[in-house]
Amino acid sequence: MKFTADVIISLKKGVIDPEGEATKKALNLLGFRNVSRVESMKIFRIELSAKTKEDAEDMLKEMCDRLLANPVIQDYSIRWVE
Amino acid sequence: MKFTADVIISLKKGVIDPEGEATKKALNLLGFRNVSRVESMKIFRIELSAKTKEDAEDMLKEMCDRLLANPVIQDYSIRWVE
After folding, report:
1. Per the UniProt record, which residue ranges are transmembrane (chains A, B) (predicted)?
2. Which architecture, in CATH terms, is A2-80?
């Protein structure tokens, strides 16, 4: 079966997010003074074939551990796309 | 009121996605031959204050049009975070 999932890579709490900070500052300077926080994240939308959804999820986690996420500074979560 | 939204920036259909392509190739080379497609996207998680959710959504759209997205090659969508 074919599955599609969004793998969402975010920075762990406490890790500095220069892109988010710069974006917040730029928005504030553009006049959006009501923006109090911006956090940047990354999505990989992955289409894969697997026997079951559980198999697919196990493989996605392995992909994150081996390639997509840096476990020192990043967290990941998986969200299924219908 | 405070609102938090994920602004999701993706490439328009037909626009080449070198990061997604490279990630797919790397996953295939690592042994994940069942991965048939990888698409890369970007999230800005934005915390802002506004009178109503509609006001907040209008402002988020303006932020995308003016700063966050490149309308020539990118689409955006907004998803509320509870």
Report:
1. none
2. 2-Layer Sandwich (3.30)
